[in-house]
Amino acid sequence: MAEVARRIVLAARPVGEPKPSDFRLEEFSPPDPGPGQVLLRTLWLSLDPYMRGRMSDAPSYAAPVEIGQVMEGGTVSDVLASHVGGFAVGDIVVGRTGWQTHALSDGRALRKVDHTQAPMSTALGVLGMPGMTAYAGLAEIGKPQAGETLVVAAASGAVGSVVGQIAKIKGLRAVGIAGGPEKCRFVVEELGFDAGVDHRAPDLAGRLQAACPKGIDIYFENVGGPVFEAVFPLLNPFARVPVCGLISQYNATAATAGAILTPQLFRAILTKRLTIRGFIVSDFASLQADFHRDVSTWLHEGRIKYREHVVEGLENAPRALIGLLKGENFGKVVVRVAAEQGLRVATPPPAHAEDRE
Ligand SMILES: NC(=O)c1ccc[n+]([C@@H]2O[C@H](COP(=O)([O-])OP(=O)(O)OC[C@H]3O[C@@H](n4cnc5c(N)ncnc54)[C@H](OP(=O)(O)O)[C@@H]3O)[C@@H](O)[C@H]2O)c1
Known about the structure:
Elements: E1 5-10, E2 23-28, E3 38-46, H1 50-54, E4 75-82, E5 92-95, E6 102-105, E7 111-112, H2 129-142, E8 149-153, H3 158-169, E9 173-178, H4 181-190, E10 195-198, H5 204-211, E11 216-220, H6 226-231, E12 235-243, H7 262-271, E13 275-278, H8 288-300, E14 307-312, H9 317-324, E15 332-336, E16 353-356
Parallel strand pairs: 8-9, 8-11, 9-10, 11-12, 12-13, 14-15, 14-16
Antiparallel strand pairs: 1-2, 3-4, 3-6, 3-15, 4-5, 5-7
Helix pairs in contact: 2-3, 2-8
NADP nicotinamide-adenine-dinucleotide phosphate is lined by residues 48-50, 130, 133, 154, 156-160, 178-179, 183, 199, 222-223, 225, 227, 244-245, 247-248, 279-281, 324, 327, 329, 332.
């Protein structure tokens, strides 16, 4: 094969905010698949906040990417060659083949995607890992009840946007916390949340209280830091807090003292009988079929909408990940690594929005 393949590897472990020099773009020859292997061409690469954790060697729930290794990431690919039963040339698959244009796989971690039902990139967003995170964390830990108030942080993003829309479907009041007036307007006017509260404007605590006149029954935590401090006094007795992510801390180089002290936090957990539970989406793998059935249906009915932030070209992935960690994205970040040429693609469901850079 004459084509040159490209990959982005981890060049250095970042200290604080990642820099472009922490990544390195390399060229290589596309590999030949051996017996029991498929050759994949990446069409779409997902960028996600957890990638910052993989760049660090601090102890975590998953092993770090080693220096010189290809950056980890979810992908949608087409099959270029197959020596694995069940996979044929032209199949579209979702997998975890990382920041590269071509990859070999034994097929075990691949799932076929029906790209005639929904645009392929949704397999990395609303119908993929972030959508599943929202669905499962809300159902299993949030335990939503009609009439309750839910607050979700990073509300215009991949996970938060789905959390708030499912809450609306289940009959809750949904309040989204997001950075800036445009994202707040989007969650209310486009996604149907009841209120949007800008965490970058002054007096977050006062404006959040005004948006939650009956207090907060579910707080879906995506960010931590000062946003949690504004939420905490408003939690009602028996409130549930699925702790999904703490993005405000991912680039931190040292622990910063917050306004809430440990004894105060534990007193509230006890006296208000709070449930605060962390989770990783893989904990709830048994809900995968329910998730796919419910969210696909809601998407096609127009009850769930999604927004994508499309980055053109693998070489722009480092800059886009750096921006994602600072809130420069508006919607689920996906990188178009190769064009979907010659493939029959689905018409986007209603009210799909897209930003490009
Ligand atoms: N537990 C799991 O299995 C799991 C799975 C997927 C994702 N997650 C977590 O879920 C969270 C959201 O992920 P996502 O993929 O949906 O990303 P996203 O919301 O699409 O993008 C990240 C957003 O975080 C917000 N943000 C960044 N820095 C912030 C800060 N200092 N304070 C407040 N907000 C800040 C920004 O939104 P604003 O501009 O609105 O501030 C940014 O757009 C992340 O914490 C991620 O790690 C966890």
